[in-house]
Amino acid sequence: MNQEFILALGEIEREKGVDKEIIFEALESAMISSYKKNFGSAQNVDVEMNRETGDVALYALKEVVGNEDLTDSNLEITLSDAQAINASYQLGDTVRIRLEPENFGRIAAQTAKQVVIQRIKDAERDVIFEDYTDRENEIITGEVRRVSNRNVFFDLGKTEALLPFQEQIPGEHYGQGERFKLLLLEVRRTPKGPQVILSRSHPNLIKRLFEMEVPEILDGVVEIYSIAREAGSRTKIAVFSKDPSIDPLGACVGFKGNRVKAIVDQLYNEKIDIVIYEKDIAEFIANALSPSKVVEVFIKEREKEALVVVPDYQLSLAIGKEGQNARLAAKLTNWKIDIKSESQFADFLEEENLTKEELKQQFAEANKIDEFLEDLDQEDKEDQEDSLETDLENNLDLEVEDATEEMEEDEDQTIDSEDE
């Protein structure tokens, strides 16, 4: 060990982020094992490395025992011999005796090389795991390194990350050397080190991209309420503004659509519909079916079901290709949505022998009943909780009374015994 070794450790600490104290401690532990293995010693030994010079000192540790009690000279030393080294030693103390075994320097150097390499790898893995765990659910930029079995491996600089097939955007091409923005989905510990899992299809990728491109979202003035996504095809995102003076739709779209275009360019030209979230669920459902116009919305609060009426010429637009628009709207609002054209709605009223006003009245009455049942359920729940609490109190009182009676009986018996 010498000054060059210390300088090398300092360089490793700067480049890899591995604390050199970790390597020092691992080396000291390894050298103890190496000494015992190579010199066949049953001694308790200790190794100290000078953090400044790299010099190594080896010590035998022996317990001080009485002169007649010595049983193992490898582990024990008599009181007289100990006091010959230092008069302050007493029985039970531990004496450190410096060892100078032949060829230990060469053995130590061989051990150092192996341990340093392995410990650097282990420590580097720990550093990578901690670093990337703290960044889960964040946007990260990676360069395609290779494609294997439909999985894509990205170079993140410090480590290699995996984009599984199921987390890819369908139809997207990943050429070697190309750079992509990805969501850091998860970091897993594996026997081969930390494995960083990426995603291009997760809805949170959309959220993070909007936070990057729209300052109002990053500042919290405009908030994202919900996102429904079918990766590579279409996404719906519901937003609202906390500041009445700021238009959330305009903030997200940007001047001449530059903000939303920057996001679309990152997503294999995936279509993005930005809609306004409204507290009134009927208005929110109507907005969610954009770009289709909505004539009327009938809602059932308890079942979270909605009947939506749209113009005849916009029925296909409201449903979307293969039902995509309606499906995404349902995911966005978390409501079941039944869409009918005006003519279909008229046929439905005729079949049910109802007028539009009567249907509205039915929905309104159903919602009132639902509200009443919910209140009843709540009251019943509170009554049950009160009843349970009363039962517990009564049982506790009975147990206390029983215990008191038993104690009184025991006292009476004791008094009777004493009298006898």
Automatic annotation (TrEMBL):
Record PANTHER family: TRANSCRIPTION TERMINATION FACTOR NUSA, TRANSCRIPTION TERMINATION_ANTITERMINATION PROTEIN NUSA
GO terms, biological process: DNA-templated transcription termination; transcription antitermination
Domain S1 motif: 137-201
GO CC aspect terms: cytosol
Subcellular location(s) per record: Cytoplasm
Subunit structure of this chain's protein: Monomer. Binds directly to the core enzyme of the DNA-dependent RNA polymerase and to nascent RNA.
Native organism: Urinicoccus massiliensis
Alphabetical list of InterPro entries matching this protein: KH_dom-like_a/b, KH_NusA_2nd, KH_sf_prok-type, NA-bd_OB-fold, NusA_N_sf, S1_domain, TF_NusA, TF_NusA_bacterial
Family annotation (Pfam families): KH_NusA_1st (PF13184), KH_NusA_2nd (PF26594), NusA_N (PF08529), S1 (PF00575)
Gene it is expressed from: nusA
Reported function: Participates in both transcription termination and antitermination.
Alphabetical UniProt keywords: Cytoplasm, RNA-binding, Transcription, Transcription antitermination, Transcription regulation, Transcription termination
GO MF annotations, alphabetized: DNA-binding transcription factor activity; RNA binding
Family affiliation: Belongs to the NusA family.
Region annotation Disordered: where it falls in the sequence: 373-420
Lineage: Bacteria, Bacillati, Bacillota, Tissierellia, Tissierellales
Name of the protein in its database record: Transcription termination/antitermination protein NusA
